[in-house]
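Review form for a predicted model. The reviewer records the input and the model, then writes brief findings.
Reviewer: anonymous (R2)
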Amino acid sequence: MSENGGSPEVRHRLPDRLLHWVMAFAVIVLGATAFLPIVGIKFEWVPLHWMAGVLLTLAVLFHLYRVFVVHGIWEMTPAADDVREVIRDLRGAGHEDLSEAKYDALQKSYHTAASLTVLVLVVTGLLMLAKIDTVFWRRDPAILTDQTWGIVYVLHGAASLILLFLFIVHVYFAFLPEHRAFLVSMLRGRGPQKSRMGKT
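Model under review:
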């Protein structure tokens, strides 16, 4: 809530909310085009997959711009108080003498895991674009050796499975009653300013 007791302040600005849903759309399309053919649903998945991958790459670049130019990197960077928060949660203690933060320790940890996973997917996915023909370029798989391609495929596949797990976890926690305000803030913008309530 705002200091004057009115409606909650803006937690997520419109560009960040749009970015979130664009990334969600890209991840859903990537997941569907990657895993549905494995379970026997046949369709022309390659064009949809690489176009969604390019969309995700552009969204990541825009997110990095927002992080480094608009918000600052420290808002989501784990700090000493986040470690203390986890220890106190394990002990059942309070957070009264910890600093307030927009994102708590678990949110920051999740973001770090998702960021690293998506970066692996983007880098390996961009390399794999060299193996398909598009209207923009001709395939050239000779840019890497067979052994290196094997590593790229393993990293891409492993990161895909990790991201699928993280996506399921994200959706699950978003719909928990105690997290409903955070879900609403990603739709409407307004929501709680602090995820960890401690000293000001």
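Findings: The helical segments are 14-35, 45-71, 80-91, 105-128, 146-174, 180-188.
Further findings: The domain at 14-188 is CATH 1.20.950.20 (Fumarate Reductase Cytochrome B subunit).
Recommendation: see findings above.
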